[in-house]
Write a structure and sequence with these properties.
The chain has 765 residues and is mainly β. It has six domains: 109 residues, Immunoglobulins (Immunoglobulin-like, Sandwich), CATH 2.60.40.10; 104 residues, Sandwich (Immunoglobulin-like); 101 residues, Immunoglobulin-like (Sandwich), CATH 2.60.40; 103 residues, Immunoglobulins (Immunoglobulin-like), CATH 2.60.40.10; 141 residues, Immunoglobulin-like, CATH 2.60.40.10; 117 residues, no CATH class. 12% of the residues lie in helices and 37% in strands. A six-stranded mixed sheet has the order 9-10-17-16-12-13, with no helix packed on it. A six-stranded mixed sheet has the order 26-34-33-28-29-30, with no helix packed on it. α4 packs antiparallel against α6. The longest helix has 30 residues. Interacts (mainly via CDR1-like domain) with dimeric IgA. Interacts (mainly via CDR2-like domain) with pentameric IgM. Keywords: Cell membrane, Disulfide bond, Glycoprotein, Immunoglobulin domain, Membrane, Secreted, Signal, Transmembrane, Transmembrane helix. GO terms for molecular function: polymeric immunoglobulin binding; polymeric immunoglobulin receptor activity. It is found in: Cell membrane; Secreted. It is a single-pass type I membrane protein.
């Protein structure tokens, strides 16, 4: 019983609904006998497209009687009304002809069932048409236009003073007369003209008609009681606004037209506020409202027409607007203007996008740009909003960089289009502080799907991806370029691509990261390498290393690859190229200045300096680490190429001495001191004394590591050169003095030969 009572109570109570998403004109004025077309917009949903559309008239008690719908016509509308649905434009139009004053009233245009909330209130006013009615001649005029009123008189007053006054209550205030007087309210707007004295009428002309000009006037010829008088009723039609339907977060376009005589004047768009004043939103003189900063654009067209685009629509953008032209770039009363009514639909299908993106100096940003799914074959563009010139020059499209703007963006900018995804992505890398500003996502299709993104540059932070700024590749050899990514990108897809004006083509790459779980991620091992094998001249250019999370693009970093030919042999050692052909030369975050390379050692996390402890094994490790780091300085390479021949000479000399010492092992006396054992030869001391030589010659070139066993085990000796003892047949024993002379002579001959080979040029050995 209680449930039944509650149901009945809800049926009796009025329905309380949210703001209706249906949008139409609030007020419409027409002259009797004319026709009217009323547009009603509705949200773009499949339900609304197939729902019933109707036009009803409200009664005294709030009931709305349907006059016309998709399948119904009332008797009063038969033969003079029609309703047409345009689902592709999300609107329907109600056309009514042969209007009478009985058609004046309050109406609703709606979707679905009457009184269910999906409707919009429209006030229709039908005013008396021009003509003579009850002795009064009626004239009609549009705001901003010109009206010519004909005032007749008799021949008796042909030479008398002519005048026009406007009735205000019981008084008639003079507007103008034939002596040249003009009321201040009509200054530079009103005049009296007489075509010919033979004609028995004069013309009263009002230019740039205002709403306040509406009322009753008295035309008079002569000043006394014998003067001729005629009454005139001027009706000024309110400007019917153009309807503009926009979606929240979407965009709207005002297409404004001006009279040809005002085509060269500054253009403007203003918004009507609560005080009925019209504040300038934007004009061609550089004025722009702060609330529309970065999301409004004015575009001039042919014959004085222009367009104003507003993106990122907000709820507070809805309202009345006026557009026109004036020398001051501001609206002036009486000047012709075009009225607009903007409606912002909050039940929108426009997707949410990031309105502000942040990037770091040297890093990159990937800006997603949604577009209308039905416009998948349309052109996609990306432009930068120009604050000073109120323009937006295009930078890139799905066909590549725009030639006029390409130079500052070579190697930095690309537009990725994902077919069927409803989104294209614009990637900008190598960011600088000058890149901060507003950017627009545009399509050649539905302009309601234009978007604005603000880019902010953050200083003091490092980019996520790290790679060389420049890599030098040798023609015909193999080049390997590393790209380091942090552990937060462990599960992301890594890629390398080659940049061109048309896009960035993905290339095969090698992921050197371990396959262990991300919780055990080694930050020093997250490398993705680009491999070019063999290097050709066409490989020169910009390459990008990037990451992706599914279809969503992430960070990128750019590397420029320079291809060089191998250096030819030269007698001048200083002319040898900074890097040997066939070696991988990668310059991480480098700047090349006069063939010298400055390296940033903090590029990769694994690049750590190795302290020289003085031990041979530590120096060996340090040398290995230095050789494994990407890139060598040009001066270091020249020094190495100079010292290598000298090191070979010293090594051969040391080998000769070692052979001599090996042959006289039997003359060696072994001395044991504790657990340390070594070979000690009295003959060596004698030779050293006699010839003044050093037994450690070449020790700085041949690294020897000795480890002493504390447990009495045999000693361990490791050298960088393999020592091979050659067994010879036994010969007559020579004295140690004679053998030392022979060894020394052989050393001098070998050293001389090596020096000669170095002067003749570098060898392939």
């Amino acid at each position: 019983m209680s449930l039944f009572f509650l149901a009945c109570l809800l049926a009796v109570l009025p329905v309380v609904s949210m703001k209706s998403p249906i949008f139409g004109p609030q007020e419409v004025s027409r002259v009797e006998g004319s026709s009217v077309s009323i547009k009603c917009f509705y949200p773009a949903t499949s339900v609304n497209r197939h729902s019933r559309k109707y036009w009803c008239k409200q009664g005294a008690r709030g009931r709305c009687t349907t006059l016309i719908s998709d399948i119904y016509f009332s008797k009063d509308y038969e033969g003079r009304a029609n309703i047409t649905d345009f689902p592709e434009h999300n609107m329907f139009v109600v056309d009514i002809g042969h209007l009478t004053q009985n058609d004046t009233g309050h109406y609703k245009c709606g979707v679905g069932i009457v009184n269910q909330g999906l409707y919009f209130d429209v006030n229709l006013e039908v005013i008396q048409g021009p003509g003579l009615q009850n002795g009064i001649r009626v004239y009609t005029a549009d705001v901003g236009k010109k009206v010519i009123i004909n005032c007749p008189f008799t021949s008796e007053n042909a030479m008398q003073r002519k005048s026009v006054c406007k009735k205000t209550g019981k008084q008639c205030v003079l507007v103008t007369d034939s002596t040249g007087y003009v009321s201040p309210d009509y200054s530079n707007r009103a005049e009296i003209t007489i075509q010919d004295t033979s004609q028995l009428s004069f013309s009263f002309i009002i230019n740039r008609v205002r709403l306040s000009d509406a009322g009753k006037y008295v035309c008079q010829a002569g000043d006394d009681s014998r003067g001729d008088k005629s009454n005139v009723d001027l009706k000024v039609l309110k400007p019917e606004p153009e309807l503009l339907y926009g979606d929240l977060r979407g965009s709207a376009t005002f297409d404004c037209t001006v009279d040809p005589e005002m085509a060269r004047l500054p253009k403007f768009l203003c918004r009507v506020n609560k005080d009925k004043a019209c504040e300038v939103v934007i004009n061609t003189l550089g004025t722009r409202a702060q609330a529309f900063d970065g999301r409004i654009l004015i575009t001039l067209k042919n014959q004085g027409s222009f367009s104003v685009h507003i993106t990122g629509l907000r709820k507070e953008d809805a309202g009345s607007y006026l557009c026109g032209a004036h020398s001051d770039g501001e609206p002036q009363e009486g000047w012709p203007m075009q009225a607009w009514q903007l409606f912002v639909n909050e039940e929108t299908t426009i997707p949410r996008i990031v309105s502000v993106m942040k990037g770091v100096v040297g890093g990159s940003v990937a800006m997603p740009c949604p577009y209308q799914p039905k416009d998948k074959n349309s052109q996609k563009y990306w432009c930068r909003w120009d604050e000073q010139n109120s323009g937006c020059p295009q930078l890139v499209s799905n066909e590549g960089l725009v030639k006029e703007q390409s130079k500052p963006y070579e190697g930095r900018l690309v537009l990725h289009e994902e077919p069927g995804n409803g989104t294209y992505t614009v990637i900008l890398n190598q960011l600088t502080t000058k890149d901060a500003g507003f950017y627009w996502c545009l399509t050649s299709g539905d302009t309601r799907w234009w978007f604005t993104v603000e880019l902010k540059i953050v200083e003091g932070r490092e980019p996520n991806l790290k790679a060389p700024e420049k890599a030098i590749a040798w023609l015909g050899d193999t080049l390997k370029v590393p790209c380091h990514s942090p552990c937060k990108f462990f599960s992301y897809e890594k890629y390398w691509c080659k940049w061109s004006n048309k896009g960035c083509k993905v290339l095969p790459s090698q992921n050197e990261a371990s396959r262990q779980a991300s919780v055990n991620c080694d930050p020093n091992n997250q490398l993705t390498s680009l491999i070019l094998n063999p290097v050709t001249k066409e490989d020169a250019g910009w390459y990008w290393c990037g990451v992706k999370d599914g279809p969503q693009f992430g960070d990128t970093v750019a590397v420029y690859v320079e291809v060089k030919e191998k250096a030819k042999a030269s007698h001048d050692v200083s002319q040898v190229n900074a890097a040997a052909p066939g070696k991988e030369v990668i310059e991480p975050r480098v700047k090349v200045i006069e063939n010298q390379v400055i390296k940033d050692p903090s590029l990769f996390a694994e690049d750590k300096p190795v302290k020289d402890s003085g031990k041979p094994e530590d120096r060996s490790k340090a040398s290995a680490d230095t050789g494994s780091s990407a890139g060598q300085g040009g001066s270091s390479t020249v020094l190495v190429s100079t010292l290598v021949p000298l090191a070979l000479v010293l090594a051969l000399g040391a080998m000769a001495v070692a052979v001599v010492r090996a042959r006289h092992r039997r003359n060696v006396d072994r001395v044991s001191i504790g657990s340390y054992r070594t070979d000690f030869s009295m003959t060596d001391l004698e030779n050293s004394r006699d010839f003044g030589t050093n037994d450690n010659m070449g020790a700085s070139t041949i690294t020897i590591t000795q480890e002493t066993s504390l447990g009495g085990e045999d000693e361990l000796t490791a050298t960088t050169e393999d020592t091979v003892e050659t067994q010879e047949p036994k010969k007559a024993k020579r004295s140690s003095k004679e053998e030392a002379d022979m060894a020394h002579t052989a050393f001098l001959l070998q050293a001389n030969n090596m020096a000669t080979n170095v002067q003749d040029g570098p060898s392939e050995a």
